């Protein structure tokens, strides 16, 4: 085998490996679950940084909203749960509170509600407006600050 053939074979092997890893990263359930766990770990770090005063409420809410959106997209890709039907709702518990912090800490609640508000899916303008208004109502009723 000539040098040129060996280099071509090596390049093709590398390209095939890169494509395989990329596809696995996007589709293979064990890697998707790993990425979900990493997203939850990132969410806990975001909450911890906010509670320790390293990040403002607005900054932490935006970052947490991005992380929760990523987690939700990964959940949808895994496809282990049935698609909800019209008028149905599926509720999942996310453990984003760091160790040694009470799950009912109002600061965590305020952060989570604002993160949800900032990451409402843009399914339609009407849906987004309705969900945002509902979250605004809950945030206001609890005496929290609304992050815009």
Features:
single chain, 148 residues, mainly alpha, 5 helices, 68% helix, 0% strand, elongated
Secondary structure layout:
Blueprint: H1 3-27, H2 29-51, H3 57-78, H4 106-118, H5 125-141
Helix pairs in contact: 2-3, 3-4, 4-5
Characterization of this structure:
The protein is elongated. The mean pLDDT is 88. The chain has 148 residues and is mostly helical. The protein starts with a helix and ends in a 7-residue tail after the last helix. α3 crosses α4 and α4 runs antiparallel to α5. It has one domain.
Quick overview:
With 148 residues, the chain is mainly α. It contains five helices and no strands.
Oligomer: single chain
- β-strand amount: under 5%
Helix content: 55-70%
Calculate Rg over CA atoms.
Answer: 21 Å
Number of structural units classed as domains: 1
Number of helices: 5
The backbone outline, from C-alpha atoms, is elongated
Task: Report mean pLDDT, rounded to a whole number.
Answer: 88
The description of the largest β-sheet is: none
The tally of strands reads 0
Task: Give the low-confidence spans.
Answer: none
Order of helices and strands: HHHHH
Structural class: mainly alpha
Q: Tell me the distance between the termini.
A: 64 Å
